[in-house]
Design goal:
The complex is a heterodimer of chains A (246) and B (79).
Chain A lengths: L8 E4 L5 H12 L3 E6 L2 H11 L3 E5 L5 H15 L4 E4 L14 H29 L2 E6 L3 H4 L5 H21 L4 E8 L5 H4 L3 H10 L8 H12 L10 E4 L7
Parallel strand pairs in A: 1-2, 1-4, 2-3, 4-5, 5-6, 6-7
Helix pairs in contact in A: 1-9, 3-4, 4-6
Chain B lengths: L3 H13 L20 H14 L6 H4 L5 H11 L3
The chains are: A alpha/beta (246), B mainly alpha (79).
The structure holds NADP nicotinamide-adenine-dinucleotide phosphate.
NADP nicotinamide-adenine-dinucleotide phosphate (NAP) binds next to helix 1, strand 2 and helix 7 of chain A.
């Protein structure tokens, strides 16, 4: 068993900001080459800037099968391998179920859940052949606990946990692990829109009494990607300051 | 140059880790050669690479025996 991640190649979706950016940066610190994605070309260029010679940014829409195929082909041509897939891209479109629009249901399920099906399927062949791979899906504490106003998001994130366990069982014998990291409330654009009242109510339930930092989620992802985590599969690591202990 | 049959059998031997004499034409991958469903998926991947072709899922699902693999490749090989 190798003990270093030096020279491995990772794809991190949604690496332009927030949690994905922290994951991409921490992976490069382990010597991993990272392809980070954003939805826009300018976002991709900014990723290339911060990754420097440790990787590159690429434009990717996880809801578009063709876009996924293009990025994976480019990775294959430039790097010839993919060791780590981090499915981090995600969106919220919150509303009470009674007010939820079909479009908002579909967009959240497609971006947060079907995207993971798409990407995992696309990387499977290479990982199976090389008998090595790490897939880490970023789910959420609310996939376990539920949260009013987020039926779509909670359904997608809970779906991710089931998907992860099923795929983990399918491919464990091929040296590929599949796990989730479930963040609680993390200080990113996604939580910027919370009002002070909302934050106060949330803090009352978080034993750590603060938001988590993206780097604290990234650390769990890097661990699951590391050689030392080879025997962990189908699991969810919760990173939530004690908000939910499951 | 080996025949298609020889090449297909060689891949089956390698992929499934079975002995040459076990790879009879009528042998079923799952029932006779100890393959599980993922092994057969990998076997099809290996055939695709050896014969530089893409086997559609509907067709791949029908390739369950040594003979079915040989037949598929024979009917679809361009070279
Ligand atoms: N922040 C939290 O408190 C929290 C809690 C639990 C779980 N999470 C999960 O953690 C992950 C990252 O969240 P975050 O807070 O870092 O989010 P964020 O700051 O809002 O960033 C979202 C990222 O996803 C990308 N993205 C959005 N739609 C996409 C699409 N269709 N195709 C490809 N990429 C797309 C964005 O790209 P652009 O920059 O180009 O838009 C961006 O890089 C998400 O899966 C989220 O559900 C977050």
């Amino acid at each position: 068993m190798t003990t270093t991640m030096q020279g491995q190649v990772a794809l991190v979706t949604g690496a332009s900001r927030g949690i994905g950016k922290a994951i991409a940066q921490q992976l490069t610190q382990q010597g991993v080459k990272v392809i980070g994605t954003a939805t826009s070309d300018s976002g991709a260029a900014a990723i290339s800037d911060y990754l420097g010679d440790m990787g590159e940014g690429r434009q990717l829409d996880v809801t578009d099968a063709e876009s996924v195929a293009t990025v994976l082909k480019a990775i294959d041509e430039s790097y010839g391998q993919l060791d780590i897939l981090v499915n981090n891209a995600g969106i919220t479109k919150d509303n009470l179920l009674m007010r939820l629009k079909d479009d908002d249901w579909d967009a959240v399920l497609d971006t947060n859940l079907k995207s993971v099906y798409r990407l995992c399927k696309a990387v499977m062949r290479g990982m199976m052949k090389r008998r090595h791979g790490r897939i880490i899906n970023i789910s959420s504490v609310v996939g376990t606990t539920g949260n009013p106003g987020q039926t779509n998001y909670c359904a997608a994130k809970a779906g991710l946990a089931g998907f992860t366990k099923a795929l983990a069982q399918e491919i464990a014998a091929r040296g590929i692990t599949v796990n989730c990291v479930a963040p609680g409330f993390i200080d990113t654009d996604m939580t910027k829109s919370l009002t002070d009242d909302q934050k106060e109510a949330i803090f009352a339930n978080i034993p750590a009494s603060r938001l988590g930092q993206p780097e604290e989620v990234a650390a769990a992802v890097v661990f699951l990607a590391s050689p030392g985590a080879a025997y962990i599969t189908g699991e969810t690591i919760h990173v939530n300051g004690g908000l939910a202990m499951v | 140059m080996s025949t298609i049959e020889e090449r297909v059998k060689k891949i089956i031997i390698e992929q499934l880790g079975v002995k040459e004499e076990e790879v009879k034409s009528e042998a079923s991958f799952e029932n006779d050669l100890g393959a599980d469903s993922l092994d057969t998926v990998e076997l099809v991947m290996a055939l695709e690479e050896e014969f530089e072709t893409e086997i559609p899922d509907e067709e791949a699902e029908k390739i369950r025996t040594v003979q079915a693999a040989i037949d598929y490749v024979t009917n679809h090989a361009n070279d």
